[in-house]
Specification:
By secondary structure, the chain is of the alpha/beta class. The protein has one domain (2-119, 132-152, 170-202): 3-Layer(aba) Sandwich (Rossmann fold), CATH 3.40.50. The protein has helices at 12-22, 41-48, 64-76, 94-99, 120-126, 162-185, and strands at 2-7, 29-35, 52-55, 82-85, 104-108, 131-138, 148-155, 189-192, 195-198, 201-202. Strand 2, helix 2 (41-48) and strand 3 (52-55) form a beta-alpha-beta unit. The longest helix is centred in the last third of the chain and has 24 residues, at 162-185. The radius of gyration is 16 Å and the shape is globular. The structure holds 5-O-phosphono-beta-D-ribofuranosylamine. 5-O-phosphono-beta-D-ribofuranosylamine binds next to helix 1, strand 5 and helix 6.
Length: 203
């Protein structure tokens, strides 16, 4: 399978997916890494791995619609089977989400449906949660609301800071995201009208 990864920052999830491809744990390869921000570490990691990189700055476009239309063109030049959002910090237009329906994944650092949007770690702390985590989901038109495929849970300890939680969650991210991508690439995972199916069974 041909995978395009979208990032905005450090790219550690993208790196975990690239490594899983190289190790043969994912039946696919990352054909391009696209960032909406120049100069981020994830672009260096991708370039060092010999992967094509692209920067498409949202600041060069007057509207979200104009940006997403151009982004879609750029992505589709690479003819992806799967689009992976890995720390891509943009709200997507409905047209964009619809175009990649059933073939775009996102990772969100909360136990969805809790805490869509940003600052999830601090919000879990503020709420006094004893458990927190991360979700991988199919992307649909609604922000962070697509059907969940897999979650990982972490404990919240007394005295934890948002940064502690972020690190604990990220360790889990690097396990579950490559796993879900591997399911998709081997044809085991599908989004149907009934919902998410793994090996033909509804999740
Ligand atoms: C991750 O914590 C992910 O859950 C969130 O953004 C972060 C991206 O980290 N959506 P990285 O760029 O993969 O290191």
């Amino acid at each position: 399978a041909r995978i395009v990864v979208l990032i905005s920052g450090s790219g550690s999830n993208m790196q975990a997916i690239v490594e899983a491809c190289e190790a043969g744990r994912i039946d696919g390869h990352v054909v391009a890494v696209i960032s909406n921000k120049a100069g981020v570490r994830g672009l260096d990691i991708a370039a060092e791995a010999g992967i094509a990189t692209e920067v498409l700055s949202h600041k060069d476009y007057p509207t979200r619609e104009a940006y997403d239309a151009e982004l879609q063109k750029l992505i589709d030049n690479y003819r992806p089977d799967l689009v992976v959002l890995a720390g891509f910090m943009r709200i997507l237009t409905a047209d964009f989400a619809t175009h990649y329906h059933g073939r775009m994944l996102n990772i969100h650092p909360s136990l969805l449906p809790k805490y869509t949007g940003i600052n999830t770690h601090q919000r879990a702390l503020d709420a006094g949660d004893t458990e927190h985590g991360v979700s991988v989901h199919f992307v649909t038109e609604e922000l962070d609301a697509g059907p969940v495929i897999l979650q990982a849970r972490v404990p919240v300890f007394e005295g934890d800071t948002a940064q502690d939680l972020q690190q604990r969650v990220q360790t889990q991210e690097h396990g579950i995201y490559p796993l879900v991508v591997s399911w998709f690439c081997s044809g085991r995972l599908k989004l149907t009208d009934a919902g998410v199916e793994l090996d033909g069974e509804l999740l």
